[in-house]
Amino acid sequence: EMFFSLISGSRSSKTFKPKKNIPEGSHQYELLKHAEATLGSGNLRQAVMLPEGEDLNEWIAVNTVDFFNQINMLYGTITEFCTELSCPVMSAGPRYEYHWADGTNIKKPIKCSAPKYIDYLMTWVQDQLDDETLFPSKIGVPFPKNFMSVAKTILKRLFRVYAHIYHQHFDSVMRLQEEAHLNTSFKHFIFFVQEFNLIDRRELAPLQELIEKLGSKDR
Q1: CATH of residue 80
Q2: Least crowded by CB within 10 Å, which of 21, 44, 134, 206?
Q3: Which positions in this protein are listed as binding Zn(2+) (predicted)?
Q4: Residues annotated as binding site?
């Protein structure tokens, strides 16, 4: 019993990819702290709003990094259940299947297993977040003109990981007692993308019912 709980404890706390850190003492770090503090108030609609006097790009950048870290952690808890065998295709229920392409290394969409797809996806996101020309961490370095479209693509892809977890692995999430954590993270994500209109409604279709349920509880 003891031995098992030690193993499972360490399994579930491992992150899937290295965490992306926002440098302490930076303005972005202050923004992240602000985001965390407002989340604590429990009013998510208010928590996602652009703080007064802040730069929209910077607010979106900080939150995108934060969502990457959250999804990373959530997926990390269920990686052992998401295998080539259990998930030979990347899907979000029977009606939605995703094929991977990043436009640079893989131009023609390829059909691959969910773990492979998610590995490609998270590696790709991490590369964008680490690119100082796209996500500048230094004060006064401007965001590029195409920042918003890059952020939208990142968030659209991160949504697919939530969709896969909800459709294919929710039973595992329940067994691990992670559902409150997953629901809070997803609700925060959805309110954020709704506030700034960052993901096309069609893209959200696989979790439409859940999204409506989360929204109606809040009015």
Answers
A1: 1.20.140.30
A2: 21
A3: 82, 87, 164, 169
A4: 82, 87, 164, 169
Q: What is the pLDDT of residue 214?
A: 85
In a domain, 56, yes or no: yes
* Binding-site residues from annotation for Zn(2+): 82, 87, 164, 169
CA–CA gap between residue 204 and residue 160 (Å, rounded): 9
Q: Give the burial class of 100: count Cβ atoms within 10 A of its Cβ; 0-12 exposed, 13-18 middle, 19 or more buried.
A: buried
Give the closest residue to 162 by CA, choosing from 94, 126, 195, 208: 208
Reading the block at residue 13, the tokens are 């706390």
Q: Could you tell me if residue 3 is inside a domain?
A: no
| Nearest Cα residue to 74 out of 1, 123, 14 | 14
- The answer, yes or no, to whether residue 52 has pLDDT greater than 50, is yes
Residue 6 lies in a domain: no
